[in-house]
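User: Could you check the structure of this?
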Amino acid sequence: MFNGPWLRELARMPWGIILIFAALAGFGMVILYSAAGGSLTPWALKHGMRFVILLTAALLIALISPDTLMKYAWTIYAIVVVGLVGVELLGRVRGGSQRWLDLGIIQLQPSEFMKLAIVLVLARYYHYLPRGYETRLNALLPALALIGAPAALVMLQPDLGTALSIVFGGVVVMFLAGVRLWLFGTATVGLVAAMPLAWSMLHDYQRKRVLIFLDPATDPRGAGYHITQSKIAIGSGGINGKGFLQGTQSHLDYLPELHTDFIFATMAEEWGMLGGLFIIIGFGIVLAWGISVALNARGQFQRLLALGLTATLFFYLAINMMMVMGLAPVVGIPLPLISYGGSAMMTVMVLFGLIMGIARHNTPPNA
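Assistant: Sure, the predicted structure tokens are below.
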């Protein structure tokens, strides 16, 4: 049936998972269409076009051999670090944050790509590290420096959510590589002890976000407005939702950032718990597939890369949903494939392409 080499390669792609990705992105288009008051512009049409283009890019990325990725892991990491430095020197300021590089035809957010680069470079680092060296100080310090340097640059932008995502991805790879659990426990105790210092280094708006997370009622019309309206939108949706185009919190402009960070609340008001389950189950299948790919991968590098990328996707999902439900502070992390935004979707689709590449590499040609 598949005669040409390109067709044989396409046959090895996980088309069931690709269809789930397409269904989630399509649902995102529907939500964005409603958020715009029943219009394809300014968000839904661009969202769909980006997905088609980036899905094509993901399929091309999946053709890259994992050995090639391992070979250029340090180069990719270095390029993204240079991009982060470039943001500090030449970055565009938007909404009080300096996170974007304006390249003329496109605006890139290098911090998004560091979420992938940190997993890639640490997977390579631990692949070549002799077994049993993971907990030695001279092995721990380089890994911590690889995580800490970009995280610090992202904190300067400032972008706490992305910095936490970078740290999370790096720590997951370290743990999976064999770094002992007691070391993470010791580090946690140290972080707790350093909390007063960390608190003093936070920006005023970041401190306010933490305080509002602990008690949104202290400022329901100010800093607590976002999360209060989000909870109202989610709660009013019930099981079945109010119906397509029938949301009041979103259409009457009560819900801020309804097409980006708080799009889950926009969805829940109109589609209810059933819409939420569709998103959770869809991504649950994708995460289970990512773990399966890692378990069937050949070699330490491929296993760590697949698991690290899957954990990064999980972090996106968990923090965004917890944030809109008031279970985590507002940190500005979008919902993959659902929220509007080019850099975030590009990151998720590159992540998807990388995991597909590992799956394809470990799938027999005649499978």
